[in-house]
Amino acid sequence: MLPTKETYDCVVIGAGPAGCTAAALVARAGFSVLLVERESLPREHVGESLMPETWRTFERLGVLDKLRASRFPKKVGVQFVNHTGKESKPFFFRQHDDRDCAETWHVERATFDKMLYDHAEGEGVECLDGVRVLEVAMVGDRTTGVKLQAKGGATAVIGSSVVVDASGQSAMLAGRLGLKRVNPDLKKSAIWRHYRGAHRDESGGGVKTIILHTDQQKSWFWYIPQSDDIVSVGVVGDNDYLLKGRGKPAQIFEEEIAKCDGVVSRLVGAEPLDDLAVAKEFSYSTDRPSGDGWVLVGDAWGFIDPVYSSGVYFAMLSADMASDCIIDALRAKDPSAERLGAWAEEFSMGTKWVRKLVTAFYSGEFRVGKFAMDHPEHVPALTDLLIGRMFSPAVPRMFEDLDPWLERAIAESDRQSDTADDTMDGGGSVPAIA
């Protein structure tokens, strides 16, 4: 099926959370919007745990009642388990902020994304799934529309004042324009699957996202309870460590589980589902967020890492903020790069704190519980960041202490490692063993 019109004010590529959010908000402002998704919906996707601050965009979209009425379990906190199996005290969001907006949900993405897609259609968006964008039409550096192909092979060229690239990690426009930059320090891979009948801890009135290190700290697991007695379990590690020269992903996945007692104990008696999936090299940024007639949102703009469940939140917030710029540009009849990308500087200033927290996590020496004990005054700011309140003025102040604290922890770890090496080599007070 191809579009009903030849020209739209706005064409959105990709019907994930970012694309559906941008499409719905621009259409609500009175503009004609076409939303195109290459896959048939519903379709499976990773990213089931939401940051609570996503609530703000849910409220603006008008989907909170649908979420409250859904089967999605309520997410009430986050917990960390270190490589020795020691569990941190849970970060219960309600203890930090007793409002409803301090909690969120764990979602099945197929159902969640379809809900947002149907909501966009209800806002007046023309929604097409199973339709490919073959190319983005450009005159010089300005986009003028898209060329589409339906399932049967029929094609059409559609004109548009603004093209929104919400194509996810395929990053259609960023790839074409050479804007995508993989983060060399976060070249990670993930393997995941779902289990039925795994352990569920519902203390605190709901479920938690649990982050667990393996015993050698070369990888970590997410553990995300969902509805219908299903739990999402995934492992993340460096590309070279996780996937190169180790056999099939299913074998690697089981090997990594065996290195994490916290996951092993939670999966006792559980049934693995036949849905193993793999992703790799998923942390990247783009050189710029917009150009004349086009703007990037969601994962097409960039993706940091899954460790703090920021992906869907960043996708929806970027689309929420970008939609105001798109509406402004269409009203002014000036879809310039400056107007369409005016949201990005503020957004980037906030996301950099989550990026710094991700970098701390991968340092190998960031102990959430230990930092909280050493600096209890920063627990509210740390919880703010885990909730998604990255614009809180307390967050940058936290890093004034976290950065030197982490440097000291790394230095101490290096000293202990050197001492151990000296001992093995015959240095120190212990004689070498021949």
From TrEMBL:
<protein>
    <submittedName>
        <fullName>Putative FAD-dependent oxidoreductase LodB</fullName>
        <ecNumber>1.-.-.-</ecNumber>
    </submittedName>
</protein>
<feature type="domain" description="FAD-binding">
    <location>
        <begin position="8"/>
        <end position="312"/>
    </location>
</feature>
<dbReference type="GO" id="GO:0016491">
    <property type="term" value="F:oxidoreductase activity"/>
</dbReference>
<dbReference type="Pfam" id="PF01494">
    <property type="entry name" value="FAD_binding_3"/>
</dbReference>
<feature type="region of interest" description="Disordered">
    <location>
        <begin position="412"/>
        <end position="434"/>
    </location>
</feature>
<feature type="compositionally biased region" description="Gly residues">
    <location>
        <begin position="425"/>
        <end position="434"/>
    </location>
</feature>
<dbReference type="InterPro" id="IPR002938">
    <property type="entry name" value="FAD-bd"/>
</dbReference>
<dbReference type="InterPro" id="IPR036188">
    <property type="entry name" value="FAD/NAD-bd_sf"/>
</dbReference>
<dbReference type="GO" id="GO:0071949">
    <property type="term" value="F:FAD binding"/>
</dbReference>
<dbReference type="InterPro" id="IPR050816">
    <property type="entry name" value="Flavin-dep_Halogenase_NPB"/>
</dbReference>
<keyword id="KW-0560">Oxidoreductase</keyword>
